[in-house]
Design goal:
The protein has 280 residues and is α+β, with helices and mostly antiparallel strands. The chain is built from five helices and 15 strands. The structure holds 2-acetamido-2-deoxy-beta-D-glucopyranose (2 copies). This is Expansin-like EG45 domain-containing protein.
């Protein structure tokens, strides 16, 4: 389904290999600071500003974080970062990969991590306890793909939805390094059957099977309500295709067309497998 064009980037790097040092490098770590949720029971918060709900506390086994500037008005929701602390006495080289599910900052931090994620930056359990005792530590971070093995991009109908008047949903499990910068809601055109009949008439003598290929959709761009929540008032009544525009840091864009539609009898709380995923 989705194979993203990393080839182009690779080719560019090879071609201009000698200039790479001067260019801002995508793989480089950025220096910053991190704290952890003060009242956290190990995992993240269920009321994060991304609108993920309880899922926002437990996704990625609870290795989640709130970010300040990286929240980017909700664009940053669901992005993954490798975060490692820099104190050689306690910290591992690998650090931990966190998923962004919330917005917030304290003590000049870029990240407020779940307790679990914060402790996992350490070399071992004892070092983890020492890190937690420090409360705020120096870190470095970089964007990485998320890892959701055997999981497709998933649409969760928000509890605030009410069929047929108002549809709000959240997109889970997009594992690429791209942001979802726009979402279209598409319905199969009802006029399609008219069109099919016409084509059947004009082409039947040639035995063409055009009628199977005349699916046409009408789409409208949705508003990002906040975080990762997209909304539509008076959504179309048929089965709905939720298309997502992925944009990478170079400005390259690509629409993802899901394999599965949301059925017309969708209801609040339902979870739908899109059948599509980004190969990270
Ligand atoms: C078009 O023709 C095919 C084959 O004859 C038929 O099965 C199908 O029902 C027709 N479709 C429409 C919309 O009339
Ligand atoms: C993901 O989507 C593919 C293609 O639609 C499907 O075959 C597969 O079963 C889905 N995976 C899961 C874990 O649901």
């Amino acid at each position: 389904m989705m194979a993203l064009v990393f080839g182009l980037l690779t080719a560019t790097l090879l071609l201009f290999g000698s200039f790479v040092d001067a260019a801002p490098c995508a793989d480089c770590f950025t220096q910053s600071r991190a704290a952890y949720y003060p009242n956290s029971d190990d995992k993240g918060t269920e009321t994060g500003r991304c609108g993920f709900g309880a899922f926002g506390a437990t996704i990625n086994n609870g290795d989640v974080a709130a970010v300040s500037d990286l929240y980017r008005d909700g664009l940053g929701c669901g992005a993954c970062y490798q975060v490692r602390c820099t104190n050689g006495k306690y910290c591992s080289d690998k650090g931990v990969n966190v998923v962004i599910t919330d917005h917030g900052s304290s003590h000049d931090t870029d990240f407020i991590m779940s307790r679990r994620a914060f402790g996992r930056m350490a070399q071992n359990v004892d070092a983890g306890a020492s890190l937690l005792a420090l409360g705020v530590v120096d870190i470095e971070y970089r964007r990485v793909p998320c890892s959701y093995p055997n999981t497709n991009i998933t649409i969760k109908i928000d509890e605030s939805s009410s069929n047929p008047h108002y549809l709000a949903f959240v997109i889970w499990y997009q594992q690429g390094m791209e942001d979802i910068t726009a979402v279209q809601l598409c319905e199969r055109r009802r006029k399609g059957s008219q069109m099919q009949r016409k084509l059947n008439i004009s082409y039947s003598k040639y035995n063409f099977a055009f009628y199977t290929q005349t699916q046409s959709y009408s789409c409208k761009l949705l508003d990002r309500s906040y975080g990762a929540v997209w909304t539509a008032t008076s959504p179309p009544s048929g089965p709905l295709s939720v298309r997502m525009l992925l944009s990478d840091e170079n400005g390259d864009e690509k629409w993802i067309v899901p394999v599965n539609d949301i059925p017309d009898n969708w209801k609040a709380g339902d979870i739908y497998d899109s059948g599509a995923q980004v190969i990270a």
